[in-house]
Amino acid sequence: MSRNATPKLKMRFKKNGKPYKGWFIVWPILTYLLALLLTVILVAVMVLTGSYANLITSFAGQVNSEITNPDESAAYFASDYSSDAERQEANREIGTDIMREGVTLLQNDDDTLPLAMGARLSVFGQGSVDLIHGGGGAGSIDVSNADTLIDSLKEDGFAVNPTLTDFYENGAGKDYRRVLPGETGVGSFAVNEVPVSVYTDEVKASFADYGDAAVVVIGRSGSESSDLPIGTLESGVEYLQLDPDELDMINMACENFDKVVVLLNTQNPVELGPLADTGVGAVAWVGAFGETGANAIGELLDGSINPSGHLVDTFAYDLDSAPSVVNTGDYTIANSDVTSGDKYMVYAEGIYVGYRYYETRYEDMVLNQGNVGDFDYGELVQYPFGYGMSYTDFDWSDFAMRDAGDSYEFTTTVTNTGDVAGKDVVQLYMQSPYTDYDKANGIEKSAVELVGYAKTDTLEPGESQTVTVTVAKESMKAYDADGAGTYIVDAGDYYFAAGTDAHAALNNVLAAKGKTTADGMDADGNAAMTAKVTVAELDTATYATSVATGETIENQFDDVDIRAYDDSFTYLSRSDWTGTWPEVYADGEWTAPQEFVDALEIDTTPGSDATEVTTEGTEGPSKVVEMIGEDYDDEGWMQLVERMSVDDIDSLVRNGGYTTNAIESISLPGTIDKDGPAGISSTLVGGASGTGFPPEVVIAATWNDELAERFGNAIGEDSLALGVAGWYGPAANIHRSPYGGRAFEYFSEDPMLSGQLTAKIVAAAQAKGVIPFLKHFVVNDQETNRAGGAMFANEQSVRDIYLKPFETAIRDADCMGLMTSMNRIGARWSGGHKGLMTNVIRGEWGFEGMAITDQTSFPNFGYSDLREGLAAGTDLWLNSSSTLWKLSDEEMTPAVQADFQRAAKNVVYAIANSNAMNTMGVDSGVKHITPIWQKWLWGIEVVVSLLIIGLVFLATRGVIRRHRWRKWVKAGSPLPDSTVGMDAAAPASASQSVADMPSALGDQPPTA
């Protein structure tokens, strides 16, 4: 063969119908690229699964540690039930009971309700087949076993229009469903009710056969990471207003039915003014159903239960009239380039949140003071805080007060004067004097504030019950940041009034002051339902030291007040309503002073000044089990911690995302920790779910401490059954504005109601060994910019409104856990604010437990820092990554190690007092194990690694052989014996043309 001859190889691969010689180059390149891609994927999987092993283990419902030599007799916390089936049935009934007492009747004209037993109903609204069971995100629940409204109504004996229901489920109505953002905040809100024009003649004709009553379901919900929109939607109205298609549907129902009932399956207040023009007979707020709450609705409709719920938020005709709404939204710091440090919010309304605003301005209008301006309570408030109707009537009498030392006891006799059995709620409100001292020092006072309540037993017609409400005298204090710098009790008259709601109570106070409708009141009050206490002198001493700990109380939040950076700012004041009405601070784009921008920078200075620490010590107890039941201050706790190596402490404190790690050196068992406030849930991180209950907002509407305790006990029972020791709940932030995206997770707009119910839940859950992580601490009252946003509020509102529910749970229930919020307070991340995390919760309240961060598993939370948090008093990182926040050896100084040890003590103490210790006897230990998923993954990694090696080998061998082939052609040499694809009879001479070799290489490329 001529050296210049071009070899021609017969090939299967062609381009444009001609042999594609480039395949010999492309094929190995593609093989190498595939091998490289598989390698990258393999490495990524190994890194991610290594870093997030604990999270994956939790998601898979597995464990990475176990107790060795377990002692089954060591049952420190035990279930009340003999089987899972019994527990589940009991818990589902508790969920229904919460709805039975949380349903709040708002309107019942002409005794529209109750309906006749077995009535024939038409149930309207796409929400009738797509119920809101809870909110989105951490507060979501597993609804796979949730009861439906239609089935529940049928089970209660109602005949339900099947044609109408089928229209929503399978007909044209199935194309209309509400839209919500997901838990990450991505998405939009839309009501998407079915337009009346879509209803077919067949559907409309079915109304006649099921015409005893129409039940209309209106749904609204929210989710983590998104607040409800304030502005106008595409429908032309706001999200919390009734949509035009909803109103058309309601009007259609009113035109075809004599009785129309509206069920508000909503978790935020809704503007209901337009219902007055529709002919609707009854309206009931039902909140969200949980798994089993729908079972209560048939009982509500037929009168099997008598509604006894009361509102936990003010329902205004115009929700935007609340002063908090002015500064609700997304506002930017124009001159900050600090990580996640360019957002802010100013709580310009001060203490005037919810009813505190509407009722106080109403009183000032009646008393003709405070530059009230153009204010008409009746045009603004449709249903006041605490409002709720019943199917029966109650009479209150014999209101009396008794001084009981550190408290006052108030008694009231409640008599059922109606025709059916029912429960009532006695609400007790206090009015503090608003003095010249207050005005001079910027102290604000609400016209009324809730200080106690009691729910009666079920009273039969004619039956009476005397209820007692105990109010601590400490409730009379208010925080004076600018004057005494501590809590004070003003001189003057304090009125205590019983009322069916906040407005009725205030009218009773005004009646005690001699005011009537002639003075501008909208109804005459009852002075007999009030009591007065007079304080002779201003008291700046009694509550200047903590009742709980004896520590001195002084300002801790000067840096959280916007006046620290803008001394011209004025908060809303009842001394001048019109002159101090809020505006959007800095028009929504604030050029902050450099002092504030500098303050945004993270401070990594250790909290300790230790120059040496003991690690892997030998003193004191050697196992956690030895310390069960010991006091928090016992030195044995720190001796245990000193037995832990630096790596042990780092593993425990830094990696607390949905788990805590087992520590073999002190026989500390690992824990599984999970969301959410409405029940232990698998919706975010997998594993098993407990019962999904109606959310906190519905629990609050029951005004029933016993139900709150039953809910807490149910959480404890699920904790024991599922092996989940840490519960990321309950949630105790305030409904600051009607548009809060997680209003369903929080109890109410009132701190007293929120705090008392929280304490009852926490105490009951802890009695079963749960570690409740009370959240989100603090001023995380909106979702917008919750990650890193700088929230500003004055010290009085921080203490008297936003901290109060947390304080109550810690002081009254010895809450063992706390979860910090993602936001900043002032310039400092909440978990990095020592005034909050140490001085207040431990110094003033006596907190003895562990404080965990909110989610820090991803690097975009770089506005916080491990060292900063530890120095401030935060103990555990909700961090599922084994590499994130890892400190270098140089950064792990003795001072930082000392901060770690302080945190570790709190974590160990809390776990030692939890149900994670069940079966831990004196001879028990713990050991790490490899989860099943990890073993499977290792097998897959081996297979993929072998595949990569094989691909590289084949591609490389092909390249080498191709090179040898080309060398042979150029040399005119005989084909090498090893040529792949060559027939057994190779050409004897190089002079034979390659083209003449019949299928010498076959139809495959040389590397095949």
UniProtKB/TrEMBL annotation:
Residues 984-995 have a biased composition (Low complexity). Residues 424-502 form the Fibronectin type III-like domain. Pfam families: Fn3-like, Glyco_hydro_3, Glyco_hydro_3_C. Residues 980-1008 are annotated as: Disordered. It comes from the Bacteria. One of its GO terms (molecular function) is hydrolase activity, hydrolyzing O-glycosyl compounds. GO terms for biological process: carbohydrate metabolic process. InterPro entries: Cellulose_deg_GH3, Fn3-like, GH, Glyco_hydro_3_C, Glyco_hydro_3_C_sf, Glyco_hydro_3_N, Glyco_hydro_3_N_sf, Ig-like_fold. The chain crosses the membrane at residues 21-48, 936-960. This is Beta-glucosidase. The lineage of its organism: Bacteria, Bacillati, Actinomycetota, Actinomycetes, Bifidobacteriales.
